[in-house]
Each structure stands twice: as C-alpha cells, then as structure tokens.
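re the bet — no i am not wrong, look at it urself. input seq straight from the record:
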Amino acid sequence: MKIKDKIKDSQIFWHIFLCLIVAILLFPILFAVMNSFKDNTEAINNVLRLLPKTPTIQNYLHVFEKLPFAQITLNTFIIATVVTVLKTVTSLFAAYAFVYFDFKGKGVLYFLMLSTMFIPFTVTMIPNYLLVSKLGLSDSIIGVMLPQFADVLGIFMLRQAMRGISKSLIEVARLDRIGNVKIMTDIVLPLVRPALISTGIIFFINSWNEYVWPVLILKSKENYTLSLALQMYISAEGGTNFAVAMAVSVMTMLIPLVLYLIFQRYIINTFSMSGIKG
C-alpha cells in the first residue's frame, strides 16, 4: 500500500507541475486576447487584471481604419507561402539525395551543412542584406523571401523520415529500372507525407512570425508584414498604444495557432521520428 500511495502522490505532483507549466505557457496568449478588448487607459493602468471592465472592439476597428491591414496580411501570407513551398521542395530533393544517392564526400558535405545550423543569424544577416541591396530588392517582399529558400532543419527532418523507409523497396524499384523521379513521387513521397506536412507547417509558422529580417528590408508601410505592423504601436516612432498592439498580436497569432491545432499530430510525430536514426 505504501508503494501505491507513493506512486499516486508522485502522479499528483507531476500533474500539478505540468498544469502549472501549461498555465505559464498559455498566459501570454490569454493576456493578449483580454487586453485587446480594453481601452488603452485601462490596459495600461490595470495591465494584470485580465477581464476588461467595459469590453470594446475599438482596437480592432482602429487597426482596420489606420493600417492597410488587408495588404499587410496578404504580404505576410505571400511571403510565408512562397518561402514554405520553396523550402519544402529544396529540403525534399536534398534529403532524397543524401539518403538514396552515393557520391564522394557525401558525409563531409552533410556534416558541413548541419554545422550551418549553429551559425548565428547575426553572422549571415549583413552579407544577405548587402546582397539583397545590390540586387535592388530592398523594400520588397522578394527581398524578404530570397535568403529563405533553403533550410537545414527541413533537410535534416526529411532525411530522418526517409531513413525509416525500407531500402528493399527502393532497391526493387531500381531493379525494375524505375527512375528516381518516379521512385520519389510514387514510393518515398507517400511514406514521408506526414513529415512533409509538419515540416511545411513549421516553415510557414516561422516565416509568418519572422521579424528581424523583414524589419531590415522593408521600409514602406504597404510592404509591411504583420510583425512590423505590431512594432508600430510599441516603438518610439509610432508611440505606445498598448491595447491596439495587443489587438494586432491576436490577429497575428490566429493563423499559426489554427494551423498548429489542425496539424499538431503530424508535427509531434515528425520531431519524435527525427531521433530514431542518426
């Protein structure tokens, strides 16, 4: 009985601990949602009281009236979509080459590629900025997208998923003289589809939430992304309108949250699979 009681007490402790962690993680979202329905005075003076005294949608109306919000949202969507598609395609082809092709220096090349994951963004930021400027793409959404057309994490995750496919399937297909394109589309792609979907969702969310790179490139308000629209209300340039900033935050986070809720099973499974094979 004592052992059972200890196990039960341990389970209760871990349940409480996990609930506390979840509450801490969810609090910023709840905080943003609740404060977006307050007027600015109440939001500043009663910042920690979640429930608004007099709920208002004026902050959301302000965003639509003062900003080209539809254009800003469209900019963000175009950037996130194009970057996601191209990153996913390049990751798929690179992962296939690393798994199913044998060529000299493959191991060294893969090691060098993975090592770039540990290079800080600030190191590559200046060269990328100079390149985009020289190409005349500054202050354009193409300039934001250009340096993001390949991703090491995507290659790594899809490579791990492909390594879980039985090699006998590929060998039999090659014995039947089936080409690599056919093998990829008919055999590999269906088997790694969950990993491909989750990788694409991760790419989309990361691109949607990107702030540092767009703020370097984009100057015109009509080219802004949602992250840049948010900083207008919390910076010295645009003043501080806390309640409106929370409204922009809520609208910015909606699409990534919905995508995660829909595809969370694929995302979790992909991260779990990435540790199966080295």
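see?? The radius of gyration is 24 Å. told u. also The longest strand covers residues 234-235. so pay up
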